[in-house]
Amino acid sequence: MRFRWKGRIIFFATGNINKFNEARKVLAELDLAVAMIKVKALEIQSSSLNEIATASVEDAFSKCNLPIIVEDAGLFIDALNGFPGPYAAYVYKTIGNAGLLRLLRSERNREASFRSVIAYKSAEAEAPKLFSGDSHGIIVREERRGDGRSGFGFDPVFKPDESDKTFAEMGIEEKNLYSHRARALRSFAEWYRGL
Amino acid sequence: MRFRWKGRIIFFATGNINKFNEARKVLAELDLAVAMIKVKALEIQSSSLNEIATASVEDAFSKCNLPIIVEDAGLFIDALNGFPGPYAAYVYKTIGNAGLLRLLRSERNREASFRSVIAYKSAEAEAPKLFSGDSHGIIVREERRGDGRSGFGFDPVFKPDESDKTFAEMGIEEKNLYSHRARALRSFAEWYRGL
What we know:
Two copies of one chain form a homodimer. By secondary structure, chain A is an alpha/beta fold. Chain A has one domain: Maf protein, CATH 3.90.950. Chain A contains six helices and seven strands, in the order βαβαββααβββαα. Chain A has helices spanning about 15-30, 50-65, 90-95, 95-105, 170-180, 180-195; strands at about 10-15, 30-35, 70-75, 85, 110-120, 130-140, 160. In chain A, strands 1, 2, 3, 4, 5, 6 and 7 form a seven-stranded mixed beta sheet that branches. In chain A, strand 5 (about 110-120) and strand 6 form a beta hairpin. The longest helix of chain A has 16 residues, at about 50-65. Chain A is globular. The two termini of chain A are about 25 Å apart. The interface between A and B is medium-sized, with 23 and 23 residues.
């Protein structure tokens, strides 16, 4: 089976529709089409996003043999020694934004960074290629959502330095101006277009 | 190279000396010798200890080809939807006992369970064999250590139902009466002796 497609296409292995929608818009700006593909990719335990993304894309590629990207992201809070780090998704599911705010209730240091790592692998590439993006900001004192339709995960409590709004108070386009994920994706797309 | 050993011996892949010391004492009661072996075994992200331990023992066995066990443990707190679960080690390193107590400060439901899964693999066994042990108890309101030499991780805040002491207030032998790890190890050892 061959893909008939004039432009370039990339497959994004994720089960998270929010991540996919963000990626679709960023990559469209750079004339790159992206398709969501649900392969269950291995996620290892590690405090290194690079290690997690590398193992994950190797596994995803071995299952589908398509030019593929995976993304791994983490939220690193200074006053909590980097917690929740790469386990942000699990921590969100269990203690949520309320738990994070409780941990920081009497804390004056609110500094935090979101970090995204994109790993790419294709039949041509021997080793996975990695791209990263950061968004530095603060954890606000209470959840702030806009219309309630935007953002996911810890977005309602994270405000990037470049804005007065939390990620959840922004639409996708606005979030993509500042987000770790959009930055990592742009860095990937610029390299990929030059291939 | 051949091992000269009259009794039975098992290799425990771990980098955690506290876990090893607990295992050594439990297994000695059942005439089983255990050696600590430091192979860096894969740890996957999963909310299932069984999945984590299975992947881990497959990986460890492939690296050393010895009859081997690995252990994966988690702490599941009812009021926190199972947090920190299998990520107890990372959560301990970052927010520690203080963080856990803060999350539960105004919480009346203190119920929690430690769970341990032992996975065994040898050249003879096709698939890994799993054994589990649980310890049900409560998260106390503040850290309680005995002489300060016992326990590790969340032991100072966990009190099993069968005792008035936290795990950190007990010596190894006493902790082994009630602990999830000792229960899983005993279950493994009884099976292994019958092989």
